[in-house]
């Protein structure tokens, strides 16, 4: 979900949770990490063992800190989740990598850091370690989660930690209103229901767009900030049969006929969004929904906790959730979230591996869910306890098979900037969809060809 303030993370800074999503406050939120990162002395002297995990400053990090208390009880090893503001997170971690600093034993890094971190040797290769199911029950984890949060170039560099994906919230009071249902059926000759296809979403969005009443059909991601427009569009791109690259090139893939059709469709939905929609990302989508401006809103599961909070969302008891619709050539949801990696510079490798194994256990994942997290463990996600823990958890479980990720190559940041610039240009009307994608393809090919 990147410094870029990444979605999957600055995913904002916000609230958290998830099957792949999600306390107690961190001991040092956003502050500088203590020097060393290895064994540290306890306040009363002694030299208790301690592990430091670097993560962004948000609710899931608080939940992880709370969870680690059980690990400490079991092993005697203390764990600190060192929280860093999203705006500085990647910068600080990169600085530690560059200095080969042992401050952080583990990092909850964006899935799209995998390429750079793996090829640069910043993450410990866990491939041999994972061969023992007692360490990592790979078969119990969703394949998409393991692939996208942990694996790069055939190696395991992380275990799934904070999984995430996109879904939609909707106003049940509007969808279930008898007069609305009658009017919708008269206009579209079908029942008013949560959309299962993008064409159906377009109809529903059109139906509820009533500017004179300050009501609009949908809130979507179009923002140039972070990775907003890219994550919002990619799932439409894939569902229309488009791809980001083909045979290592963007040309012919991101600007194919299917891709152009997908962007034309996605930009066309903006007329059913509130004014200023070209700047919308997760925060603005939530605000539009909670403010009663829209009938539907897309967002990351990590931000749905606000919608399930009656103190923040006056429509809380009227809010429902549904999976990202399918397109003419498939059904996909943009993937967000992070994996938990072992730093190559840690001086506490053995204890860190014990933590990774402990965190991945089914019993631990059940505790993670109880704290509000979302798990990649299929056994845990299939339980009634998980599905009922949050009003959106069952939709999360339904979403996981459809998750697909953006590039996690070492050149991710450069490719993302080009994508953001051009998709925003299309959304804001500065370029036609075809012009935007042709430019994107040409610019990304230069990046991909560079050594």
Model description:
The protein is globular, with a radius of gyration of 22 Å. It has 17 helices and 11 strands. Strand 1, helix 1 and strand 2 form a beta-alpha-beta unit. It is an alpha/beta fold. Helix 8 packs across helix 9. The strands form 2 sheets. Strands 1, 2, 3, 6, 7, 8, 9, 10 and 11 form a 9-stranded mixed beta sheet that branches. It has a two-stranded antiparallel ribbon with strand order 4-5.
Helix content: 25-40%
Strand content: 5-15%
Biggest sheet character: 9 strands, mixed
- Global Rg: 22 Å
Keywords for this entry:
451 residues; nine-stranded mixed β-sheet; alpha/beta; 39% helix; two-stranded antiparallel ribbon; single chain
List the helices and strands and how they pair.
Elements: E1 50-56, H1 59-75, E2 78-84, H2 86-98, E3 106-110, H3 114-119, H4 143-150, E4 151-152, E5 155-156, E6 159-171, H5 172-175, H6 178-188, H7 198-208, E7 216-219, H8 228-239, H9 257-268, H10 282-290, E8 294-300, E9 319-323, E10 333-342, H11 349-360, H12 362-370, H13 378-381, H14 384-389, H15 393-399, E11 403-404, H16 412-427, H17 433-449
Parallel strand pairs: 1-2, 1-3, 7-8, 10-11
Antiparallel strand pairs: 3-10, 4-5, 6-8, 6-9, 6-10
Helix pairs in contact: 8-9, 8-16, 16-17
